[in-house]
Structures are given as structure tokens and as C-alpha cells.
Amino acid sequence: MRRHALVLGLVALLALTGCSGSEPVTGAPAGPTDAPSTPVASRQTPAEAERTMASLRRVDDLPLYEMTYVGDYDAQAGLDRPTPSPVGCSLFAALGDRDRPLFARNFDWDPNPAMVLRTDPPDGYASVSLVDISYLGLGADPTGDRRLLDAPLLPFDGMNERGLAVGLAADDNARAEPVPGLPRVGSVRILRLVLDEAATVAEAVRVFQRYNLDFEGGPPLHYLLADETGASAVVEFVDGRMRVQPGGGSWQALTNVPVVDVPEQRRRDDRRYRVLAEALTAAHGRLDAPAALELLDDVRQGHTRWSVTYGLRSGEVRVVTATGGRREYRLPPA
């Protein structure tokens, strides 16, 4: 690992539902039977794999699970799953308070089970990420299903111990042409490589540049990045080429409209982008986690599955699910 000893754990449960705390999952495993049951990414010892599986807890009626991944995994192992269609996702980085930069996002998609995943690979940065486990072929009760050991490969958003956060959203206009000589990586998998390898937005952009992104099997995507220094950027694919739009002010937002080379007023033709932009401008990009969650609620839709905020300096993670359950975590920055 690349930093001092990690202290990563659950801080508190703020229950708005009937949940009273974390309980072990019981029942038989569920999920599609045509998906391979043998994990492809795990590089764990048998004992590490068993500790990982034993850490699974159901913590919310979404259902939302938690799991701590113990040991190593191969982030480039071949997991050929369809890319999700995260129609309606809303993301922003509120960077006006340099002592409290914050990354926030709504994930809008099908009513699938989700999981908060904690990872600490021996050759990468520790991180907290959120995973829609249906894309591992899992159903509402994944108890005992070893496909969970591939969960590190599919983060939909997350933050690592260096205060770098990343999230994705659909962009129907994006098109990625392959660059000869570069390896191909899935358009969700790239988030794992960024979380494991990058400490800053600049380093994250270089991770993107090392790969050809594969948009087959799902919609094309674009990405928002932010780090604890207050830097941010949108990564998009325009006319087949990767383009980067650095953040230049106190905030940066992303929905499902292109950003690169698009005038701000045209971006605001999208209602969710306009709501985010107006609120962030009025606040000069200075939002704490409760205010950020309120803003996410203003742009939530009927198919919003979770809202999450990442404190890029504090290491605080707050998750609110569609059922109203709230969870808090802490990932201390280096």
C-alpha cells in the first residue's frame, strides 16, 4: 500500500427507515444462473476470500450491502459484463471552500441491489466505492455467491484515500475511436484503475489516456473527476477522441449533456444541469454535505437509486438510498 496505516470503517447509521443497524445477511444466494460463478479478478488467498465473503452485511432495504475486500485483485482481469445505462445521473464538484472540497452524485437507474465496497489493494490506494451488483449477475440476496469477489471491477463512483473522486454519466454523443497500441478497458472498469492508481485529477487523466475505452454493450459515457486540491475535470469523447475540460472556477457539474466546447448557456438548457449550476453559482461553490444532499434531492428522479457525497479532504462519505436509509463512512486522507 502507498501510504500510512489505513483506518477505514463505519462511523454511524442515521436511519430514516426502520433499519436499526448492520445485520449479517441470511438466506440463499440469488442471481442469474448463466453468469460464471468463479471470480476472475481475485488474487486472494483462500483465507482472504473467506474474510471478504464473511464481511458482507445488508444495511438497507434498497437493498444496500457493505463488504470489505481483503487482499489483492487484478483490476485488468477479463470481466465481460454489459455496461450499465445510467440515464439521468447528476454529478457535481463543489470546490469553493478549499478546506472542504466536496464531490456529489445521484445514480439513476434500474431498481437493482447496490453495495458500498471498501478496498485496500497492496499496490494501490484504498478506496470506498458504490457498486450496482446486478452487473455482476447477482440478485437481491448475494449471500455466499463468490461473484462478489469481482465487485472491485465495477465501481460506479468512488473516492480513494488521496482524496480523488470519480463518477460517470451517460453521454449519447460520445464516441471513442481506438488508439493503436493501447489496451482496451471497459468504460466502468476504468474507474477502478483511476481509484487504484491516481492521487490527483492530472494523474487520473493520464490513466484514461493509457487505455482505449470500450463502450460496447451499453451507452457511451463521460466522467467527472475532482481531488482534494480543488482541481476538477470532465473527460469526454468527442468525434472519437478523448477530450478534457478542466474546471476553472468554484464548481463543475455533469449530467447527460456534453460539456467540452459547449457554451455554458446551452448546457443550462438541460433542467438538471441548470438547477445544479444556479445553486452552485449562488453558493460560490461552497456546500457542506447536508447542503449537497439537499441539492441532489432537487435533481433526483423517480429512478434515483442512491445519492452520495465524498469529502475530498475530510474523507467523509455519506450515502442516501432510494428507501431513505442513510449511511456514513470515513476514509482518512493520506
3D structure, described in words:
This protein has 334 residues and is an alpha+beta fold. The chain contains six helices and 19 strands. The chain has helices spanning 46-54, 189-197, 201-209, 264-267, 271-282, 289-298, and strands at 9-14, 23-24, 57-60, 64-68, 90-94, 102-108, 114-119, 127-132, 157-160, 165-170, 184-186, 212-214, 221-226, 232-238, 241-246, 251-254, 304-311, 316-321, 326-330. The strands form three sheets. Strands 2-3-4-7-8-9-10-13-14-15 form a ten-stranded mixed beta sheet, with helices on one face. A seven-stranded antiparallel beta sheet has the order 1-19-18-17-6-5-16, with helices on one face. It has a two-stranded parallel sheet with strand order 11-12. Helix 2 crosses helix 3. Mean pLDDT is 87; it is low at 3-35.
